[in-house]
């Protein structure tokens, strides 16, 4: 039965296979978006604000724009509105895959809706809520801090991966007790047969998890690739804005490495 712990931990590490993807881009500022405006933050202060995708403010002062500049600003603002939620979506989906993988293993070991399973499910629900809170995510409101996107695993999954392992480790005793009871109740097999049957069950579970997780992991990696390509195009548009609007000449939200 010593296969149980590494199997559960391996399931929790499904997050790594999902989110570990490089993107050589850096955000020099924090970004807040809501239906009315996009705000670019420098040390918690609004440095640049775009209202209704066509009105530009720098440090609280409105900057007059000609039609060409306004068109550029609109495309840029709409691009940010599209990409920031995509970052949040990738983060939430990556962690969600890991949680579901662990949940499936625990349910398979202890029984669906067992006391151990329900307790861990509550912890996972709380974790998902905190992940959304981390991005201030509610309907159409998002926040992303200044950061590198060169390793999605470190940005989004690291702390949650460790927490999943901690939750599982704390629950191992309860899980083993539930497994022991299930094996003891099988009176048709001797001890060795029960252990062999259980090991086969675990290995079957590992194969099922791989078949379930791998396609979703590949899908997210493709999303990350598309996200990075979109940010690079947005960076080119940002360069055009810098050249066109003098007050933005030193503004550089998106930095491509």
Task: List its traits.
six-stranded antiparallel β-sheet, 9 strands, alpha+beta, 257 residues
Plain-language structure description:
The chain has helices at residues 4-12, 14-19, 67-110, 115-134, 152-184, 191-244; strands at residues 25-27, 30-33, 37-42, 45-51, 55-58, 61-63, 142-144, 147-148, 254-256. α1 packs antiparallel against α5 (152-184). By secondary structure, the protein is α+β, with helices and mostly antiparallel strands. The protein has a six-stranded antiparallel β-sheet with strand order 6-5-4-3-2-7, with helices on one face. 65% of the residues lie in helices and 14% in strands.
How do the helices and strands line up, and which of them pair or pack?
Blueprint: H1 4-12, H2 14-19, E1 25-27, E2 30-33, E3 37-42, E4 45-51, E5 55-58, E6 61-63, H3 67-110, H4 115-134, E7 142-144, E8 147-148, H5 152-184, H6 191-244, E9 254-256
Antiparallel strand pairs: 1-8, 1-9, 2-3, 2-7, 3-4, 4-5, 5-6
Helix pairs in contact: 1-3, 1-5, 3-4, 3-5, 3-6, 4-5
């Amino acid at each position: 039965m010593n296969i149980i712990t590494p199997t559960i931990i391996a399931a929790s590490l499904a997050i790594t296979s999902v989110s570990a993807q490089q993107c050589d881009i850096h955000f020099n500022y924090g970004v807040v978006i809501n239906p009315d405006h996009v705000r670019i933050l420098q040390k918690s202060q609004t440095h640049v604000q775009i209202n209704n995708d066509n009105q530009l403010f720098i440090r609280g002062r409105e900057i007059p724009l000609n039609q060409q500049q306004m068109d550029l600003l609109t495309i840029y603002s709409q691009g940010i509105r599209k990409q920031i939620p995509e970052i949040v979506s990738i983060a939430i989906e990556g962690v969600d895959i890991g949680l579901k993988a662990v949940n499936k293993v625990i349910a398979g070991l202890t029984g669906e809706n067992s006391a151990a399973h329900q307790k861990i499910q509550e912890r996972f629900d709380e974790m998902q809520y905190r992940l959304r809170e981390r991005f201030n995510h509610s309907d159409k409101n998002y926040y992303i801090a200044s950061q590198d996107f060169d390793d999605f695993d470190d940005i989004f999954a690291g702390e949650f991966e460790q927490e999943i392992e901690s939750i599982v480790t704390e629950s191992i005793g309860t899980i083993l007790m539930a497994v022991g009871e299930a094996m003891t109740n099988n009176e048709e097999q001797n001890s060795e047969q029960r252990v062999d049957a259980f090991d086969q069950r675990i290995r079957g579970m590992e194969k099922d998890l791989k078949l379930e997780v791998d396609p979703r992991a590949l899908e997210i990696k493709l999303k990350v690739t598309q996200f990075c390509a979109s940010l690079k195009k947005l960076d080119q548009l940002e360069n055009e804005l810098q050249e066109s609007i003098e007050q933005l000449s030193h503004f550089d939200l998106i930095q491509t490495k």
